[in-house]
Design goal:
The structure holds 2 protein chains of 2 kinds. Chain A is of the alpha/beta class. Chain A is 26% helix and 31% strand. By secondary structure, chain B is an all-alpha fold. Chain B is elongated, with a radius of gyration of 22 Å. The chains are: A alpha/beta, B mainly alpha. Chain B: The complex is composed of two ATP-binding proteins (MlaF), two transmembrane proteins (MlaE), two cytoplasmic solute-binding proteins (MlaB) and six periplasmic solute-binding proteins (MlaD).
Chain lengths: 155, 260
């Protein structure tokens, strides 16, 4: 076979593998979504974060507005502090907003639900580095079962 | 009696170490100086065709079927827990992290590695390699180097094609046949697959495997006993050694990449 014909076949092979990489990068891994966008950070302290992980989504009414950027333990209060990275296009949440750690489905992943609060002239808008005070911890299934059994025992 | 056993053990050990040494010398000779991509272009393009393009069919067909089987098996278990939505991540993660690089490397060892060994072994048996040396042509640079580069570059490309075709095969069975929601299949996959952690690590894995398989195949051929029996033994050894090396290194790489 001539070199030209071989080159065409090898070129088609390389083009096919580039197409495969594009499929993996864009359709499977969705590389373009996180990281490149502008974002600002919010802090929140919880009593118990359950199974929350870094990169877990932050949702408002089911819409993903950001992700968990960092989780660490406050060394004095011994409470977990969660850093949220919120997309800059959603920059008008009032400081009366509340956070809750929720579970998608019965066995699904845990995510943070953000419930926007009321707005009046005394309420400020959350900005970079602000702390959300009103938080609700994750429901730990074992504690729930324990409470249930305890109540049954009292009856 | 014991001394005889001891001698056998020592001889086997020395033979193994000498094999490593000869392989390293071959590799050093082939890689000495930068690859002559421009001057020896026809040699390289020929090997890219033989090693890459001709392996394409078996890679695409096996990728398709492995993706389809994964979706079928995963669905039966996931549907018991009502978690059919996780079929996409299951198929994508197992293909990207494990099956894509490993199965491609095993198929590559069988399809391209054995062919490389037999070709070089026959060249040695028919004294073509000695003939080249007589004409002051370095067989390491003319024969080994193009095949080495073709193998190291082609196999990661084949692994990517394998993975992509496998994910599409999983889509075929999961979505079109078993009725998993198409949006859920892709969106759950996108939520769970990370580009650097999963896709790039898979490519790094397949590059390491490509290097292992190609070097083993070339070394076994270059080192073969130049008889018909020697070539057949070298070809068998290529497939066995390369497969074992791939599986062993896979465990180490997985422990380093995903274990921590």
């Amino acid at each position: 076979m001539t070199t030209r014909k071989l080159e065409i076949l090898v070129g088609a092979f390389v083009a096919l593998s580039i197409a495969a990489l594009m499929l993996l990068a864009l359709k499977v891994a969705n590389a373009g979504v996180a990281g490149s966008d502008q974002s600002y950070q919010l802090l929140a302290t919880f009593d118990n974060i359950g199974g929350l992980k870094v990169r877990s989504p932050v949702k408002v009414g089911g819409v993903v507005v950001g992700r968990v950027a960092n989780i660490h333990l406050d060394p004095e209060q011994f409470q977990p502090v969660v850093t949220l990275e919120i997309n800059s296009s959603y920059n008008n949440f009032p400081e009366t907003s509340s956070l809750a750690i929720l579970t998608s489905g019965l066995l699904g992943e845990q995510y943070i639900g953000l419930q926007p609060g009321f707005v009046d002239e005394n309420v400020e808008i959350l900005g970079n580095g602000d702390r959300i005070e009103d938080t609700k911890s994750a429901i730990v299934l074992e504690e729930l079962i324990g409470q249930f059994l305890f109540n049954r025992g009292n009856q | 009696m014991i001394l005889d056993k001891l001698q056998q053990l020592g001889a086997a050990t020395l033979e193994t170490i000498q094999g490593f040494g000869r392989a390293t010398l071959m590799l050093a000779g082939a890689l000495w100086g930068r690859p002559r991509f421009v001057k020896a272009w026809p040699l390289y393009i020929k090997q890219f065709y033989v090693v890459g393009v001709l392996s394409l069919l078996i890679i695409v067909v096996s990728g398709l079927f492995i993706g389809m089987v994964l979706a079928l098996q995963g669905y039966t278990v996931l549907s018991k827990f009502g978690a059919e939505q996780m079929l996409g991540p299951l198929v994508a993660l197992s293909l990207l992290r494990e099956l894509g690089p490993v199965v491609t490397a095993l198929l590559f060892a069988g399809r391209a590695g054995s062919a490389l060994t037999a070709e070089i072994g026959l060249m040695k048996a028919t004294e073509q390699l000695s003939g080249m040396e007589m004409m002051a042509v370095d067989p390491l640079r003319r024969i080994i180097a193009p095949r080495l580069w073709a193998g190291v570059i082609c196999m990661p490309l084949l692994a990517m094609i394998f993975t992509a075709v496998g994910i599409l095969g999983g889509h075929l069975v999961g979505v079109d046949w078993l009725g998993v929601d198409a949006g859920g299949y892709w969106s759950a996959m996108q939520a769970n697959v990370d580009f650097e952690q999963d896709v790039l690590n898979g490519i790094i894995k397949s590059t390491v495997f490509a290097f292992l398989v190609t070097v083993i195949a070339l070394h076994k051929g270059f080192d073969a006993v130049p008889t018909s029996e020697g070539i057949s033994r070298a070809t068998t050894q290529t497939v066995v050694t390369a497969s074992l090396a791939v599986l062993g290194f896979d465990f180490v790489l997985t422990a380093v990449m995903f274990g921590g």
